[in-house]
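Worked example

This section walks through a single chain of length 245. The input is the sequence exactly as stored; nothing has been trimmed or padded.
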Amino acid sequence: MTEDITLEINNHKIPCFIANPKDNNGKGIILIHEIWGLNENIKDIAQRFSNIGYTVLAPDLLSELPPENRITPDILLQMRDPKNREESQEKMKQILEPINSEQFKEIALLKEKECFQYLQNTKDIENIAVIGFCFGGSYCFALSMSEKNLKASIPFYGRFPSQNFDDIKNINCPTLAFYGEQDTELVSSIPPIKEKMSQYNKSFEYIIYPDCGHAFFNDQNHGLYNEKAAKDAWNKTLKFLEENL
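Given that input, the structure is written out below as tokens.
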């Protein structure tokens, strides 16, 4: 069973999609979307998890952005065109400016924490993980540094949200991260994360899949989807959840 609800924190609305399992086993997932927002791909993933017993809450953390600050597939196509690349890159920078602001990040984290409280207090979920993709992967790291009762964090091709890697000392749960080999900028960021995870004795596992890049798990993005990597990541995710929830 699925439902749409709207949560609220400090006068900020949080539209959410919930996928409920047949039987509530006390295990839940906060599922954070890519930069596209709460779309059909994320809802489909939520239902895949609920089909095997997890209560899944998928919030839209971008719902309060105006239309001009929403990324569309069109602008990504323009960025691949050499004739339009410079102009479209500047447009992308302007679109992302509010998303990269400290105010937005603070509010988005508050929304995540409200989702956590909702699962605990309303759905009677005791063990909660966070899973996210790209934009959502970064907010996996953010929630794991803020919520002491979080049981697991699974960022897919997510950027560490702080400029200070020593903030890793604040992570409160095991982390399993996934990357595509061709996503070179993110792959190059792994060594300092790994070093600090080890320094602060945090449980950190990461997988880099060969022959694929960013968004390899999104089966609705046919240009980037990698079936072999996605299936392996799915199986590893289920095992990690079983071990930690």
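What to look for: Residues 102-121 form the longest helix (20 residues).
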